[in-house]
Amino acid sequence: MHKKALAMVLILLIATTMSLAAASTGSIGFVNYGFLDSFESGDSDAYAPGIRAEFFLSDYLGASADAIVLASDEAMENFMMMYIVSAVARLPFGFVEPFLSVGPAYLGLISENETVDGYTEGVGFNARTGVDFNILDTFSVGVEANFFVDDLEDFFANIEDYFSESALRGSLIGVSAKFKF
Predict the structure, then answer these.
(1) pTM, entire model
(2) Is residue 34 within 8 Å of residue 42, measured between CB atoms?
(3) What is the sign of the dihedral through the CA atoms of 17, 19, 25 and 30?
(4) In this structure, are residues 27 and 178 in contact, taking their beta carbons and an 8 Å threshold?
(5) How far is CA 147 from CA 20, 48, 105, 154, in A?
(6) Low-confidence ranges of the chain (pLDDT < 70)
(7) To which H or E segment does residue 162 belong?
(8) Could you tell me which residues come within 8 angstroms of residue 15 by beta carbon, excluding any fewer than 6 positions away?
(9) Cα(40)–Cα(34) distance, integer angstroms
(10) β-strand 122-136 against 172-180: which pairing, if any?
(11) Helix (H), strand (E) at residue 76
(12) Beta partners for 143?
């Protein structure tokens, strides 16, 4: 019994060590987000596409930059965008790669008009977590949740409100496809 347990521990150590050495140094990918309500209702017009670039300084720590189109009008003249720059921590276990990302986010507007009524730009805080599945050495797909807080003081003063069901329904749930190098 002890020999089998020792053999299993050695196999797991070797597999983990080999997979950690195979971590990528960067990626460029596409993300597609939706609110939980849009997934439940099947509203495909409510999805928010985006792009992401990542660079890793080590196997575990790196940085990412995202640009996400949150909304647009029917004439495709106005786009509400979220730009995110964040620090990323990951655990490259080979096929499965969980990650956590935190950093500032900027809400902005790209518009052909000089002003748009009822819109204000702002800076907030973003937290993203998920799991990537490394299909190939150079390609992965993943699922993730993205949570945006526009006022940190209000967040810490009313933290219980942000973990209510209505606040979690406002989080973006997404899928990603990344090309790794």
Answers:
(1) 0.76
(2) no
(3) negative
(4) yes
(5) 28, 14, 11, 15
(6) 1-23, 38-39, 42-45, 74-76, 113-120, 161-170
(7) helix 159-162
(8) 94
(9) 10
(10) unpaired
(11) none
(12) 131, 175
Long-range contacts of 163-172 (CB under 8 A, 24+ apart): 168/36, 169/35, 169/36, 169/37, 170/35, 171/35, 171/36, 171/145, 171/146, 171/147, 172/33, 172/34, 172/35, 172/48, 172/68, 172/145, 172/146, 172/147, 172/148
> Which of 54, 67, 65, 48 minimizes the C-alpha distance to 132?
54
Phi and psi for 13 in degrees, rounded to 5?
A: -65, -45
Phi, psi of 115 (to 5 degrees): -135, 155
Radius of gyration of the chain (CA): 19
Q: How far apart are the first and last CA of the chain?
A: 43
Q: Which two tokens stand for residue 47?
A: 């999805």
- pLDDT tens-place string over residues 70-116: 877 766 677 888 899 999 999 988 899 999 999 999 988 887 766 65
